[in-house]
Specification:
This protein is elongated. The relative contact order is 0.03. Helix 15 runs antiparallel to helix 16 and helix 16 runs antiparallel to helix 17. The chain is mainly α.
């Protein structure tokens, strides 16, 4: 028997089809011949004969679609031979009924058959799939008692079983005690460590493998590349790529997809494209990964070209393209593509819905958001907290606070993002008292606030004129909740103090920001100086703005208007001279507006 099935890993897409699926089971002609044979055996009353039924049982058992037929045919056999028991246990172990494989093994033992090395390989596979470590250890004892402890494939199966069950110590012990190892042995141990998240050990075993001059294959390299990413050694990925090139490792569909995904997430769309072009065989995952890589790099034209060329599109294909539009601020295109997706009768998933709702929020299109919400309700798509949070955020940003609150109050589970979305939404839409009440409710419910929560709370305080309370919340961020204030929080505090007319304190806060100050903070201060006629601080703020962002004409206009208001004409002239001096680089402010036309 081939050792290949023992290197399978629990992945969204299985690395290898089980070698147990024989070619005849997929061949319509062979299917017909097997059925014809089975019919002849039934008519000749040979269907209870073990030897006569062996080929029929093997064919049925190793095909998922006819597994139930194998069970029926098996039940008619009076004294099944060991090969027939093995066919049945093998078929059940690779199906979605691995527990039945263990029951059948027990029945076989009760009938006096002890099994052979192949039997234990199949039972180990079933134990790994469930997983059932106690039964697996019993099988290990049987393996040793029957003298199969030195059999290569049996040991590989034990490593695989222990790894899937999370017993890495036992997996390593079996590996270390093997007198003979093949590539599957190394892959089984590497996959075991990867399965349990022990990525440093994956790299350690790979290093040992290279010392032993064992040449890796695509299965090995998938796990090693992923381990490099997980331990943060992205530079090692290039080293692994060199190993692949130098050793002629075939870039199959699984390794290719992994490399495209890794390069895509790093923004290396060129490297991802090179891998994509080299792949002889591609599946829908390959196209999806390449579309996502192109979109992430900002190359929406390439992403759309790939999307248009994709023959087989699944929900992920559509979602990748929709998300790419959203990431590139092409929200209208994202919504339009969603409409096309629905028209194509592709059912969106929760990720798609959350992405489209985010696009509606950015567009401020309540009508579109309502339509998506209605579609969600009508199609009975199962929602989760991420979709519900997106609904709250969308309704808040579209100004429909009551609908946002209705969704929020109807949620079965609330996380910090849920609370943050509703607090910020209520605060931005001019109801600071309710926002602060919601924050108090959040704390009473034992939910720890996050950075975004305090943005909403500080905005509420600014809109209510609660200076002392706002400053207290700002201090609590670090002292009570261990959150280091970010630029947005400093901006809120400056805004709070400017609204209250405390420009000196606002200036002190702006000056104390530990990171490089955002020009928006100084612009707030300049606007407040304009309102209160504080030319001294205005000059400081203006100089700081022009130092940070000398090309924005809005700032020159703000400063010039302030000086004109207090009749400091020399400063007005200075502002105009600075604009003239920077002619060609200074952008002139222009007014614009937009309207939505409803047909």
């Amino acid at each position: 028997m081939s050792g290949r099935p023992l290197s399978e890993l629990r992945r969204s897409v299985t690395r290898h089809r089980a070698a147990a699926v024989n070619t005849a089971a997929r061949d319509p002609i062979s299917n017909y011949r097997i059925k014809e044979l089975h019919g002849r055996l039934i008519r000749s009353h040979q269907c209870s004969n073990s030897n006569s039924m062996a080929e029929v049982i093997k064919h049925y058992a190793l095909s998922e679609s006819s597994l139930q037929k194998s069970m029926l045919a098996f039940s008619k056999i009076c004294n099944p031979s060991l090969p027939i028991w093995n066919h049945m246990i093998r078929g059940l172990s690779q199906s979605d009924r691995p527990e039945d494989a263990l029951h059948l093994f027990d029945e076989m033992r009760q009938r006096g058959l002890r099994g052979n090395n192949l039997t234990f390989i199949f039972v180990c596979k079933a134990c790994a799939k469930i997983p059932n470590i106690l039964y697996g250890k019993r099988i290990h004892v049987h393996v040793l008692k029957m003298g199969f402890g030195s059999y290569l494939y049996a040991c590989n199966a034990l490593i695989h079983m222990y790894g899937f069950c999370g017993e890495l110590g036992f997996a390593r012990k079996v590996f270390d005690e093997m007198s003979e190892r093949d590539l599957v042995s190394w892959n089984s141990l590497i996959c075991s460590y990867s399965q349990c998240g022990n990525y440093d050990d994956v790299l350690g075993v790979f290093d040992a493998m290279r010392v032993e001059n064992v040449k890796a294959d695509a299965v090995t390299m998938v796990k090693v590349v992923l381990a490099c990413v997980h331990v943060g050694e992205t530079k090692l990925v290039e080293s692994m790529m060199e190993y692949i090139e130098d050793n002629g490792v075939e870039i199959d569909v699984f390794l290719g997809n992994t490399l495209i995904d890794v390069y895509g997430k790093r923004g290396s769309v060129g490297s991802a494209w090179n891998i994509f072009e080299r792949m002889g065989k591609k599946n829908v995952v390959s196209w999806n990964a390449m579309i996502a890589a192109a979109a992430k790099s900002g190359d929406i034209s390439l992403a759309k070209k790939l999307f248009d060329e994709t023959v087989e599109r699944d929900v992920v294909t559509w979602t990748c393209m929709i998300a790419g539009y959203a990431q590139s601020n092409r929200y209208e295109d994202a919504v339009t593509l969603f409409d096309e997706m629905v028209a194509a009768k592709i059912n969106p998933d929760r990720v798609t819905i959350a992405t489209v709702l985010s696009a509606c929020a950015r567009l401020g299109r309540l009508d579109l958001g309502d339509a998506v919400h209605d579609y969600l309700t009508r199609s009975k798509i199962e929602t989760d907290i991420y979709v519900e949070n997106a609904l709250v955020d969308m309704y808040s940003k579209c100004g429909s606070v009551e609908k946002a609150l209705a969704v929020f109050r109807g949620m079965k589970r609330l996380d910090p993002v849920s609370w943050t979305a509703i607090i910020c939404g209520v605060a931005v839409n001019g109801d600071p008292d309710r926002a602060l009440n919601l924050f108090s409710e959040m704390l009473r419910n034992g939910v720890k606030p996050i950075h975004g929560t305090f943005v909403g709370v500080l905005l509420a305080c600014a809109h209510s004129g609660l200076v002392e309370k706002g400053l207290s919340f700002f201090d609590d961020m670090r002292k009570i909740y261990g959150l280091v204030p970010e630029m947005a929080h400093y901006g809120c505090v400056v805004d709070l103090l400017c609204r209250a007319g405390d420009l000196c304190k606002a200036y002190e806060v702006a000056r104390s920001i530990p990171v490089s100050s955002d020009v928006v903070v100084w612009r707030m201060l300049l606007s407040a100086c304009n309102l209160y006629g504080d030319t001294v601080l205005a000059k400081i703020a203006s100089d700081k703005i022009l130092e940070v962002d000398p090309c924005n004409g809005v700032d020159y206009v703000l400063s010039s208007n302030l000086y004109a208001g207090v009749e400091k004409w020399d400063e007005v002239v200075r502002m105009r001279e600075l604009v003239e001096k920077g002619r060609g680089n200074v952008s002139r402010p222009s007014g614009w507006s937009s309207i939505q036309i409803i047909d």
